[in-house]
Amino acid sequence: MDQVDSSRPTCGSGTRSEDYNLPLHIGALFIILGVSASACAFPLVALNVPQLHVPPKFLFFVRHFGTGVLIATAFVHLFPTAFVSLTDPCLPSFWTEDYPAMTGAIALAAVFAITIIEMVFSPERSSCSYQVAETAVHDTLPTIPRASVVRNPSLGGDDISPACNAPLNGGTPSGRSYNHCVQAAQESAFNNELEMTEPNYESRLRGRSNNDIPAIFKRIDSEQRRKKLTMQCLLLEMGILFHSVFIGMALAVSVGSEQVILLIAIAFHQTFEGLALGSRIAAVGWRPKAPQPWLMALAYGCTTPLGQAVGIATHNLYDPDSETGLLVVGIMNAISSGLLTFTSLVDLLSEDFLSDDSWRNLRGRRRIIAFLLVFGGAFGMSLIGAWA
What we know:
Elements: H1 2-7, H2 22-48, H3 56-86, H4 93-98, H5 102-121, H6 130-138, E1 149-151, H7 179-192, E2 194-196, H8 201-206, H9 215-252, H10 256-282, H11 292-313, H12 323-353, H13 356-361, H14 364-384
Helix pairs in contact: 2-10, 2-11, 3-5, 3-10, 3-12, 3-14, 5-12, 6-7, 9-10, 9-11, 9-12, 10-11
């Protein structure tokens, strides 16, 4: 083992400070800042400034094209980069011989971690049960005297109705819809639990239409959906921001023609990725004048330039080819690949094409076009992966 360790090459190039063009690097920082921030904020501006007359088809294009971009970012940019970094021959034998599959294990751990986070913080944990729903329905029924209400003997006095665990968001990756929850709650409230003995009460119930669903269900649906999309956007941005810092640092320590090629590639990368993230942030349905979407767009716009600033300040000290640099970049990219793999496939692709809601809203020609846009985004980002 000692012989193998002594024979492995030395990490680090030791030539990063040569021909370092500081003005170009400072200019590149502002270029990436402008490109990233404007790309992520544009869908928000288009949604909030109707005077721009941005057609809805553009947002449709950005939404689905961006899904493909994010999928390709995980599979083409992050995971291969992490694997190359963590299996570099100059690293200790643990990474290269004992357990070269560590990259996949880290990405898998990130997938399990984000699954746990979604389960713990998901607003759907508090989705409706018959008992809660019946209370809301009863609140909208005509008031009748207590003496005229007789408990249905077919139901035990202590019987608890089973929970309706379907999320209140119109459709989920599991293919369930919340509509049956509302329907079951209404049937239970109107028909099963109580027998109304007032003479004209039954006729009044029969006169109720399907449009009389209590407003509380619509409010819960909207709020639950907003919370779910907010959490998805936060997790998606977290996965993006993890690797954006190191993209900026890699650009900041590059020199010569490598710097120019990398700058162009990263500019396109940030544009596509920013539009993808911005379209998802814009789709949340924020309250009027809410600062959160703009802060999220600003965070995305500043993260890569922040990495560039750190790289510029430490370009004489930081070497991405050093042992520490390889391990830090490789581990963070592996974590990011796991986060983006889960969010792009489960929260975005599956939600857009496999949920009940998608089969109602995305049909026929629109569905075909949307899927082709996903493929186009993945293909375009895969090409950029040859340089960045």
